[in-house]
Amino acid sequence: MSDLDRLAERLGIEPFYHDIWGNRRETSDATKRALSAAMGYPAGTGEELAASLHAVEDRAWRRMLPPVLVIDEGAPLNLALAVPAGLEDAELTWTLTEEGGLAHRASLRVGNLPLAEQRVLDGVAYERRTVSTRLPPTLPLGYHRLSVVIRPQGVGGTLEGGTVLIVAPQRCLTVEDVVPGGRTWGIGLQLYALKSGDDWGIGDFDDLGRFAETAAGLGAGLVGLNPLHALFPADPNHIGPYSPGSRTFLNILYIDVERVPELAATPQAQALIASEEFRQRLAAVRATELVDYPAVSALKMPVLEALHATFRALGESDARREAFEAFRREMGEPLRRHAVFEALHEHFYRRDPSQWMWRTWPPAYQIPDSPEVQAFAAEQAERVAFFEYLQWEADRQLGTAAERGRRAGLPIGFYRDLAVAAHPGGAAAWGESDILVQGANVGAPPDQFNMKGQNWGLAPLSPVGLRESAYGSFIAMLRANMRHAGALRIDHVMALQHLFWIPADGSDGAYVEYPFEDLLRIIALESRRNRCIVIGEDLGTVPEGFRPALERAGILSYRVLYFERSADGGFKAPHEYPAGAMVTVTTHDLATFKGFWTNRDLDWRARLDLYPDEAARNKDIWDRGVDRWWMLQALEREGLRPVRYPNNEGSQPFSRELMEAVHRYLARSPGRIAMVQIEDALGEVEQPNLPGTVDQHPNWRRRLGLPVEAMAEDEGVRRLAEAVRSERS
Hints:
The protein is 38% helix and 18% strand.
């Protein structure tokens, strides 16, 4: 094995992969060099390669303990200890300090530990000795600290090391733990799409609370949400929920301004809202079919600034001030760093739009802990506090909406959606440059839908950085997205095992491996702690053995009716779906059922010239007709084909009865959760997002045709809810 191959192997760069057609694709040397450099280990020259390989291979020897160790609940502790040779007579004392503070200690001779390996580094001999012991039977699940001190005989001084010991359950919280009978159903929506009588041109957290109450009244067990991640307040044109600035914080445009308590004590804001010019602008954004994000931001931000001025004047003993300070303490340094980024991004972008990416800022401002950044934060303390205030108020309103759903009878509540990665120009990439990689983007290899592959323009997490930080940022991100939620959907969950990286230099992409078992255990631990069910979006190319591993961890699979096919091409029967799954007819990236039946998505592709030629378009149209035929056959087998469809001919028109029958069909599956998309419940023909487009199609902007206040009494919504509810019970 060459030195470059050894370095790539140590960093988790996979040597090859098989594409969707079964072809083996080798990872080129150029790709290995580019991805190694992206992780901080340059390999462009022989000297760089030697230095990087030396650093990677020697690191585990030069420190006594690894930065983190993740083990199953009840498992023995098996730990490799790296120490200088010749310490056989030295006394070793280990201290295990539980998360709650209780400490356990024991001492022994180094020479009593089995010798596993030896190595000489720069003329110094090292040994690796193994510690195998039963952990205290009372040791709880959680994040503990293991410290080791070695005192050599007859020599002054000590050697010290430490590691984070994570003790985790083997399985996540399950639907059976929460819902009697272990089967339920829910309604999925894009929050921005909600309308109400008092919205400000976009769905907000108050609308979400109303929707949660409606869903509970219809008998649903949960409400599914698109990602609520923070975007870029300084630039409201950046709207993609799956391309966030940070996955740990919230999109502040979802704040309902009129539900912020400071409004009642801010005459300036009241006068602004009551002004004729403001009311006209507000009426205009309410009347649009598409969310006008810049117009919404221009309405909300000045009012929120006025409300923050009122908030700053509150006394320190005021309940709101105390709650804000408690939120600050709970969120800690990550909140402050996020707010500093928002203030900096606003500062540089407004001064010069070409400085949108933080990598274009003056070098000193690209480093969060630089003296210049600290000076800026001090000078702009009020602006930084404003962005902290917005995160606090967004969190409060989301929590209120979740509580409304629980009180109304949602047993699970909200399921939140975790995007696969963050934007390289956002707060997370700036604040955690040792964790988020800048020299590569996340994407997907070529497949039948994207012959050239996909580059999603997102920054991958570094597997090396994750381990070195004891998974701290990953844990914080899970907690943030399980907050005010009863379930979490992890987008492109295969990223827990490996993720397709595309080098910034234009080299071909390759898969990079992640510490899969560690990440699964941590997810299970946070799932139990936060009482949050976990769903893994496992669509696309799924590695062999991956789904069984998710099943063992109690993570639900994600099954879409359109894709679940038998060997002959027909749709799988309901009983063929796995019990450990969330099932749905469609998703935000696919045609609504009405759009599917009427070829609306294919019409869009033709209109936007997304087909390579007319033959490809004609094939899609033919295949869709066959799919309609297959679907009517499947419904007939289940006794669900509506009477108005006299045969299985696929050219028959769409009807609400047909849509109800299809949802009944899927609801009969043993899948733990069956989801209905709100667009289907309302009979919408347009889908929220059309993959492969950016501005050509109104992605992430469509508003629903019916206001939330009218949904509970809408006949179509009620009939579809009754159809699914009756099959689930």
